[in-house]
Each structure stands twice: as C-alpha cells, then as structure tokens.
Design goal:
This protein is α+β, with helices and mostly antiparallel strands. Residues 1-21, 604-643, 689-708 are annotated as: Disordered.
C-alpha cells in the first residue's frame, strides 16, 4: 500500500440570499424514524416521573397558572376523554371542577397513613374490575404510594406509573374531575326552591364534597387519590369508557407489574392446601380477587338475581384470610362501597355471639354498610367460582422477554403447535415464572377486530423428548397464561399453540369523518404497542408512529454540535445591501479549511471464474438461507400468511376502520428468574416459505447434474 498523502484545500463559497424587509421566519420540518419500545427499570421510571412533575410545577408557578393537561382535557375535550371510537353507553357529567373547588381542604391522602380499601367508592363508570384491583392493591404496604410517584397539589399536577406489556409507563394528569351536580342556573324552578332560591347555599351544600363527583370517589372527607388515579388509568387507556369491564387480574398486573392467574374454585384439588399455601399468604406476596358469572334469569323472569346479596359478573376484592378459634374466614370487599353478603357471618347475623364479637379485632372487621363483609372459607368457595391470583415481585427477581408479530394459519386449519415458539436459556438453577402474553389492547379495543385469541404452551428442555410441564388451563381468551417451574441451568423451548374465536357480530366498517382525530389516536397507540415485536415493520407504520420529542431533541442537538464543530473551522463574512424598494441582499462568504487524507493505491485485477448453470444451482441449494428481515432477536423463517398493510380511506364523509387482521397477533414470552440467573429469550416463527425455497433449489440442482 502506498503512503497516504495529506492534502490541504481552501474553499471559498459565496451565497447570495434575497429577502424582503421584516422579521425573519424559519420553519423546520424534521422527521425521525421511531425506535422500538425500550423497557425501563422501575427506579428509572419513578425518577423520570418525578422530574417531569417538578418541571411542570416550576413552569406553572413561574406563569402563575395551574396545570391544564392538553393531552386529557376533561373540560375542552369532553368527547375524547369520555368515549372511544364507538359510543356504547352515554355519560352525562354536569360539570368539571378542580379538586380545590370540590373540597374546602383537599388532600391526596395522609402521608403518615397508607390508603385503605374502604376509601374506594365506585361512581357512574362500570370499572368494577379496576376499582376492585385498586382496593386489593391498597391492602399491601406502600404499593399505592409507590404508584402515585409525585404531585404538586398547589399547581394541580400528579404523576403516576403503570405497568403495560413490558415496561413501566408514566402518566401525568391535572386535578380536574367530572361532577354530577349542575350549575344553579341550570336547575328547574322547583329545584331552586329547595335551596330557598339562594345560589350560595346551593353551591356550598350540593356542589361541594366527594358525593358531587361523577365517577369514583373516596370515602374519606377531602381525599382525592381515588378519583385521580382512576383518571390516570383512563388516560393510560385513552378514555374512561375503555376501562369499563375487563378482568381484575389484568388490572392488578397493570398496577403492580405482577403475574396473574385465573383459577376456577371447583378445580382446587385440596382446599386445605389451598388455604395454607395460597390464601393465608394474601397481601404478603400475592393478591386475590373473586367473582362469579351472572345467574340465568330466563326461568323465573326476574330482571336481576343475587346470591345472598352478591352480584354476578361483578369483581370483589379479598382483603385478607384469617383463622380465629379454629374457624377460617375470608374478608371481602365490594368496590361499590355498599352491597354486602347476607349469609352466614354477615354483619349482624346470628353467628356473631358475644364470644365472637369479642374476637372481631382478630378478624379486623367492624359492622357497617361499607362494602366490607366476612365469609366462612367454605361459603366463599361455594359462592365465588372464579379466583384471580397475582404474584408480586421484589428486587431479587429479573425479567427477560421476547415479542413477535405472529402470522397464524388462516382458518380453517388444524389447531396445533408450530406457528411460533420461544427458546430461552438460564445459566444456573432458579425458580422461574414463564408468562405468555398478548398485548394490552384496552387503548385500541375499538380496533381489535373479530378474533379473540387464546394461548397455551408446553415446555421442553432442549435435547429431551418428554415435556417438563405445560400451562394449566382455566378459561379461554385470557390476556396471559403462565406457569411456575424450577429450572436447572440449560436451554429450553416453549412451544406455543394459538387458538382464536371469531366473533359473530359484525363491526361497523366505517365511521363519520368527524372521528378521524380519535381514529388517528387509536391507530397510533396500536402501532406503538405492536412495535415491541422484534419483527415489527416500522416503515409500514411510520405515518402513525410519528416522531417522539426526545428523538427530535437528540437529532437537533447532534446537528448543533456538528455545526459548532464546522463553525470552528470556518470564517464567515456577511455583507448587506438595501435597495430603494426595501429589498435586502445578503452576501455570505464562507472560507473553510479542510484536511483530507488521500490514500493512493495501485489497481489490482480480480480473477474471474466462470460458473456453469449446474454449479450455480448447487451453490444456491447449499448456501445457508439469509436471515429474515426484521427478526433481530433470532426469530427465523417467513410465514405463508402476510399481514395486510394498514389502509384508511375517506370517501363521502365516511372513514374506513382498519381492524386487526384475524390471522395475526402480537405475543411475547416473559421469563422471570432470580436476578443472578437472568434468562436469554429468542422468539422463532415457522419456516414455511424458506423450507419450500430450499427444497425447490435442491431439486433444480439435482436435475441439472443428472442432465450433465
């Protein structure tokens, strides 16, 4: 190689710009490709939330303004905050007030006391599952205070964190809440007469206090944490209507980052073992909820049936399990804050003799219509058919995961394994929990399409033909399934089996173009969620993903640093001339000194080898297949099923709704292990096309050799 030559060049560049007089205006349009979702540790999420709340509070105080959340403005963006794409239930809040208008002395909660389950009272929203989960979580130490990361009650800004799919999410809200009491002027004449036609009396009595809130409220005077965390959870999922219904176990996962399972009480093999090994550990390292299906009213024609005061399709919280004087009791709570069990050991029942009244402190129960009640363990098992259990983690655990967008075989097809599997390895012996999960689709539930997916998997150790274990089945269409297993050091494969139920009801194919703003939000959130998959095709979603602020700032900062470095090497001379008509001519002369390193190398001739058609075919057959694009974490192969590219058309005032493809689903395997033995997880898709291509190439090569 020849020695490099150093060449110094001086370049003079003259630029002439013509402008009109007046203030200069510069517009910059920057587009940056979005990156994949990055999972942050809990401590980092908490720190980020605190910093954001502090920054907002400082800005508001400097401006002498309270915080108003542009992303979730209850007052000026009512439809967007209340409803999704389709309105199924009408909500009619009368007004919007800040907490300082509702309460004379508002406080989030008492810092020297932990929030309690009796603080929670459901409002006009059917979010029983969430409030039941909130009541359950409130029974454990400082969990609620950990979720409510930061706040400035003077400014009215609150920061929360929730676990979603694979990471902790920060949610910032203001302190405005919906109320159910109208303005004085909106009352009828006879209604005003009840307050002696005195507006001040009406405002001080009817429009003050927690009872005036439209949605959830606290049972403690002046406490605001319940309605505000409900609002934050609604913002996390797009609007209030999207948090209606759902499963308690999913909501507890969202609040804790734990792992939930659903158990049918009739499936318990040994009820004594379940009491000792499971229920007595309630609110220590696990949480429980319970429910049962609605009763069939077709026989007796009654509109609604209850089981001794308890309602079907309604979520209840297990506050604790206690054993007193040889009897087993389960203390349960209704998130309504009323409506209790009327059977044995209900408040005031005959079982509460003087002896047992003295034992009430041991059970930690008091009489009152507050939604809390006591059941004997056997009655609890008989009444509640579904038990939701969530395991909690501490800092000794670590999570590893892999997510894929999976193309399933179109129906009709065999219900079998093979569409996807997850391989993982651990370096030492460890207790583990394997969780196979779908995405949390609450935010974009209006786009979920006609397929309801159900998952299960079976676990093998690599090199062995007999399975280690498989996921226990409890019910279909759960968001996630899991199994607990002790693992030795080694390599493992979880073979996944996908099932889907195609719903009969047809969804609306189009919506009015007035819903375009809402539809855009839903598609964007769906694309962001699906971006967790390693084979996510971000180019096809770029228009819906947009560019996040941090990416823009980082890019502009890098350009600034580059320009600064360039300016240090340049000398700029600017001259201006103004003509009689006011036109300004600016002449910029830039003198740049640039150092280049030039390498002079003698040309070489590369020998050319002739390849016959037979040799080419053989090489094509023998060459290893190229890895599939986008499968960064090792997922291999292509699928015979491709997903339809998102298309939205607007015609005649109607917009097509891009529902989820019924043959594609995003799933992931999360592996929880001891933090000293973290797992490495890789998702793998089936290889239909690649196998076909290889077989074809081999056949062609063989034919060519035979002919020769």
């Amino acid at each position: 190689m020849a020695d490099p030559e150093t060449v110094t060049t001086t370049t003079q560049e003259t630029t002439t710009t013509t402008t009109t007089t007046g203030a200069p205006s510069v517009l910059s349009f920057v587009q940056q490709e979005p990156g994949l979702l990055v999972t942050k540790e809990l401590d980092k999420a908490i720190e980020y939330c605190k910093d954001k709340v502090a920054r907002i509070a400082k800005t508001c105080k400097d401006r002498n303004r309270k915080f108003r959340d542009i992303e979730f403005d209850l007052e000026n963006d009512k439809e967007n905050c209340l409803y999704g794409l389709f309105t199924q239930e009408e909500y009619t809040p009368a007004d919007v007030h800040r907490v300082t208008q509702i309460f004379d002395k508002p406080h989030f909660f008492d810092d020297d006391e932990k929030p309690g389950s009796n603080d929670i009272i459901q409002g006009a929203l059917g979010d029983t599952s969430f409030l039941s989960a909130l009541a359950t979580v409130s029974t454990v130490g400082e969990l609620i205070k950990t979720l409510c990361v930061a706040r400035d009650e003077t400014v009215g800004v609150y920061g929360f964190i929730f676990f979603r799919d694979n990471a902790w999410k920060t949610v910032i809200i203001d302190d405005m809440l919906y109320t159910r009491v109208p303005k004085y002027e909106e009352l009828k004449y006879n209604e005003q007469e009840l307050y002696h036609h005195d507006k001040d009396i009406y405002n001080k009595s009817a429009r003050k206090g927690g009872k005036s809130l439209y949605f959830a409220k606290s049972g403690e005077t002046g406490e605001t944490w319940v309605p505000l965390i409900e609002k934050a959870y609604a913002k996390l999922h797009g609007n209030y209507s999207h948090i209606v219904g759902g499963d308690v176990c999913d909501a507890i996962e969202d609040l804790t980052g734990g792992v939930s399972s659903v158990l049918q009480s009739k499936d318990i093999l040994d009820v004594d073992r379940f009491w000792n090994d499971e229920l007595l550990r309630a609110n220590k390292d696990r949480l429980f909820g319970c429910s049962f299906n609605s009763l069939d009213t077709s026989r007796n024609g009654q509109a609604k049936l209850s089981v001794q005061g308890l309602m079907g399709d309604h979520a209840y919280s297990v506050l604790r399990a206690v054993e007193v004087k040889g009897k087993r009791f389960v203390v349960v709570r209704n998130p309504w804050g009323s409506g209790e069990w009327t059977g044995r050991w209900s408040d005031g029942s005959k079982e509460w003799t003087a002896e047992w009244l003295d034992a009430m402190p041991d059970i930690q129960h008091v009489f009152g219509d507050d939604g809390q009640f006591v059941m004997e363990y056997s009655d609890w098992l008989d009444c509640f058919s579904q038990i939701d259990r969530t395991l909690l983690f501490d800092s000794s655990w670590a999570m590893s995961s892999s997510w894929l967008r999976v193309p399933a075989r179109p129906l009709p097809a065999a219900w079998s394994y093979g569409d996807v599997s997850f391989a993982f390895s651990v370096t030492g012996k460890t207790n583990s929990i394997l969780v196979l999960s779908q995405l949390d689709t609450k935010y974009f539930k209006d786009l979920t399409g006609k397929a309801d997916w159900s998952l299960d998997f079976i676990l093998y150790r690599v090199g062995e033909k007999e399975p280690i274990t498989e996921v226990p089945h409890s019910q279909f269409n759960l968001r996630s399934v899991n199994l607990e297993v002790e693992l030795e050091a080694g390599d493992y494969v979880a073979y996944v089996r996908l099932d889907r139920f195609i719903k009969e009801s047809e969804k609306e194919a189009t919506v009015d173009e007035s819903k375009l703003r809402k539809l855009s939000r839903l598609i964007t959130e769906r694309s962001k969620s699906q971006a967790i998959a390693s084979n996510f095709k971000k180019d096809e979603h770029a228009i819906f993903l947009g560019t996040d602020l941090e990416t823009l700032v980082e890019k502009d900062f890098a350009e600034f640093e580059k320009k600064k470095e360039s300016d240090d090497k340049s000398k700029t001379v600017v001259t201006e001339e103004t003509s009689d008509d006011g036109t300004v001519t600016t002449t910029t002369t830039i003198v740049t000194t640039e150092t280049k390193q030039v390498v002079v190398k003698a040309p070489t001739k590369k020998p050319v080898a002739e390849t016959s058609g037979t040799d080419a075919a053989l090489k094509e057959a023998a060459a290893p297949p190229a890895p599939s694009a986008g499968l960064e974490d090792g997922a291999s192969g292509e699928s015979s099923t491709t997903e339809t590219v998102i298309t939205v058309t607007v015609e005649g005032g109607k917009v097509t709704v891009p529902y989820d493809d019924i043959n594609n689903v995003t799933i992931g395997l999360r592996v929880y292990t001891n933090k000293d033995v973290p797992a490495t997880v890789v998702g793998r898709l089936r290889e239909d096309k690649k196998e076909t291509k290889t077989a074809t190439a081999t056949a062609t090569a063989t034919a060519a050799v035979t002919t020769a």
